Each structure stands twice: as structure tokens, then as C-alpha cells.
Amino acid sequence: MRYEEAMKHCIFRFMSGSHAYGTNQEGSDEDFRGVFMAPLSKAFELFQTSFVGSGSLGDLLDGVRQDMRIGNINSAGEKLRLAMDVNQGDLNFSVGTVGHPTEDEELQELRKFLKLAAECNPNIIEFLWVDRGITHTSPIWEKIRAKRDMFLSKKARYTFSGYAIAQLKRIQTHRGYLLNPPAAKPTRADFGLPEETTVPQQHEGPILSLPEGFLNAETRANVVAERKYREAKEAWDSYADWKKNRNEKRQDLESRFGYDTKHAMHLVRLIRMAKEILTEKTVKVYRPDRVELLGIRNGSLPYDELVRMTENVDAELDALYKATDLRNKPDHKGIADLYMEVAEEYYGIKVR
Questions:
Q1: pLDDT tens, residue by residue, 247-285
Q2: What is the chain's Cα-based Rg?
Q3: What are the percentages of helix, strand and coil residues in the chain, rounded to 5?
Q4: Mind listing the pLDDT tens digit for each residue in 237-247?
Q5: What average pLDDT does range 14-40 have in this prediction?
Q6: Alpha-carbon torsion 309, 311, 315, 320, what sign?
Q7: Using CA atoms, how far apart are residues 133 and 294, in angstroms rounded to an integer?
Q8: How many angstroms separate the CA atoms of 77 and 80, rounded?
Q9: Domain extents for the chain?
Q10: CA 272 to chain centroid
Q11: Are 13 and 32 in contact (CB under 8 A)?
Q12: In this structure, CATH architecture of domain 3-47+96-151+328-347
């Protein structure tokens, strides 16, 4: 499905990222996110069946695996090609998302959006509380927004902190690149291995699970070396990709402060948003602490202090989780009924 077609059915669109948080600076990128309703006609197409919202990545991969098992390589390749073809499918390994071909913009199909929002996905739940930079809205969207409290639950404690910890891991990994970068790309010879592997990767686990003495020491040592080589190569590839793709502004900040301060800003924002949801039952997208966050972005928070702060987060969030009277899980029935209601209104049909 093409972006232009999705836009015809767009029910909400806004400027996301730093502009939504109030942490944008001169030259900040303008990213857009939105929600659309899949055209009803897509449900009745005969040959172009990989429409947005249909099937799943698991279904696709199951079909590909089956073809591979029986040696039907051409069929497997064709399944993948059709699924990723913008004219025939737009699965693109992310069912329900349509991207702009040249800009940083994504539109989520409503069903996918509602499911992710119900999971308190930090990048999605904020759509329902955005009140700035809105370029398009609709009565359908306002009806959904009016019932946004159905989506909030204690899940936020884990989803927001999970994203925050992911930011910390990126910071620590990149800091390692800065302070102790890999010296050179590893080779198989460095690990005493021949040019070609003699043990398929899927056999390594079973081999290492065998009791000592069941295999000769050389075979076991070879499998261990294969694993160490693969880990070293993955680490090198990650470092090389980071070094190649980081932009100049990011590079300057990392060089000056010894770690990625932009990731730190997002880490702090995510933690504070988790606390706000648990205590105030709201999602503060436009940040009341935006000046402080920009200061962190510009290096005001020492690395050691950032690490100390995150070390205590779990205990603090656990206490808030126990104290909050937020529902344990979202109102799935209410959300499902809401989707039925807006679908009937949008498509002009009766489905119940």
C-alpha cells in the first residue's frame, strides 16, 4: 500500500519527536507520525491479499520455512518479494505501517495503533496526548482521544522503563567504542579457525551440551572458538556501523562529554514519563522539564551521575507500581468496542 493512498484515509497526523516534547533546537529534524484507517476495499481484493493489517510476520515466515523444507526456493523467494512489494503488500516486516518514501514519516493503520497503544508502547501511547504540532485530525480521532484513559495501565511501568534501559545500554556500548574501540576486524585465524566453518551454528548448542569426555577436546574447543569469533565479529560490525553512520553533531557531543547525551535525554524523559503515568494517570508529551532535558542533551549530566540515577529506578518504579490505583491491564473490551464503533461510522456499515 502506498503512502499517498494511506494519507487519503488519514485520521490523525502530527509533528513528532523533539518538536512534540518541546526539546527541539535550531535545525532539529521534522518528523511526522499519524494514524489511518485501511480502505474497506482492501478486504475484498482477490490477488493483492497482503494488504495492511492482514496476516502476520509469523504467518509469512511459516510459509517461507515450509517452502524451504521441501526445497521450493523459488516459491519462498516469491512470498518474500510480494510481501515487501509496495504495490502488492507493504508487509515490509512491519504489518500495519506505511512510510513516506523520501521523508521521515510513518502512518500506523488504526488496528495496529490501538493494539500498540493498549500495550502502553512509549512511541505510540503519546499520540493520544499530543496537543501541539497537529497537522490533521478528524471526528473519528477525537472520539478515540476522548476515551484515551482506557489505554493507560500499570504496563507503563515496564514498557517505559524497558525503553529507558535500552537507551542506557546504547549509551554504555557507544561509550565503550569511544574509550576502548576495537583494534581491528577479527579474522577466523585470530581464533585458530580454518577459513570455512566445520560445524553448522545450529549444531553448536547440542554439541556443547554433551557431557565432558563424550566428544574429543578438539571438537569442543573448535565450537567454543567459533562462538567467540562470531561474538567478536558481531561486536566489530556493530562498532563499524556506529562509526560510519553517526552524524557530526552526535559525534561532537560524544567526543566532548564521553557519552551519547541525546540518548541520556531520552532516558531521563522516559523514566519521568513512567512516574507521571503511575502517579498522575496522564502522559505529558510536551515536557514541563524541557529546559532541563535540553541541558542534559547539551552535557549537563555527568555520565557517572546518569548511571547512579538509573541504578535506583527499578526500586522507585516498583514502589509506585504497588501504590498506584491504575488498572492492571488496559480495558480491552472497551477498546474493541470503540474500534467497532468508529469502523461502523467511518465505513458506513453495520458489523454488529
A1: 788 788 888 999 999 999 999 999 999 999 999 999 999
A2: 24
A3: 60, 5, 35
A4: 999 998 888 87
A5: 92
A6: positive
A7: 19
A8: 5
A9: 3-47+96-151+328-347, 55-94, 156-197+244-323
A10: 19
A11: yes
A12: 2-Layer Sandwich (3.30)
